[in-house]
Please model this.
Amino acid sequence: MTKSLFGSIDRIIGGGHGFKKAKMMVPVFYYFLFFFAFQKLEGLNPFVALGQRNFSPRWPIFWTEYTDYATAASLIIVFFVFASLTASFFWTQRIPRVLGFLGMLQYHAFTSSFGKPSHQLDLWLWVAFLLVFLPKNQRKFLLVFWAIQAFILLTYSMSGIGKIVMAFDQYFKGQATLFSPDAGVLHITTMLNRMQEPSLHGPLIVNYPLLGWIPLLLIVYLQFFSFVVAFRPSLHRVWAAALILFHVGTDLTGLSVFVAPSALFLVFLLGSPFQISKSVRRTILDLPGVSLIDRLRRSLT
Model:
């Protein structure tokens, strides 16, 4: 099985035909990172105005205990801007990529130091860390790029697995599960009551439960099989577009806003250097579950 797994990875990387495109996409990550950091520079005064209320520094910014809050906030955001800018210009060198990661780490730790962690940029932090190890060797470069794709998709599969495990637990407890037709409504009303915020399309789904249930099942399907898609390059762009739409949907219903992961899909999967062009029929047959049904059908005929 291990041999077959590594064989699949070798086939994806191939003869290095995607190297040129992968090399073009990596700096785009740092351009996004700089743009995000620069936006935070615009909001520096509101950050400082928050004061030290509820500020309990995480370990990466332990040094903030030796300075005042306003100075610490300013240093963290300014360092994030210049570190990401340096990485954008000199991304082929390891030290600027290390600086980019450290800038991201400091900012992430800072935003997570106000009572609860901030998960918006978790994936960005891990991707910045993985890019530190980006080698110059063409094959290894592509291997690291693919590993980043696989890591991003794995986090979504973990979320999908968690939802299914929870559904079985709820079923055995006699509770409603995500397989119940009113699951979408229950989920949306629970989240909206918890957040106490208005929703643009939440009331529409409450009135028409199937509008929430069917997308919910599709979301679980997308998440559960995401890691499998890492090994199917023909689905990289399709899956990236679908997961971006998933985040757009959660935003429209007011459940959560996850803008940051969508940018990673744009960089690493929508522009995947391993994408294989196939006909619509072949792409559909590559879909997880559909491919299994097709193999069973052919074995029986």
In short: The radius of gyration is 22 Å. The CA atoms of residues 5 and 217 lie 28 Å apart.
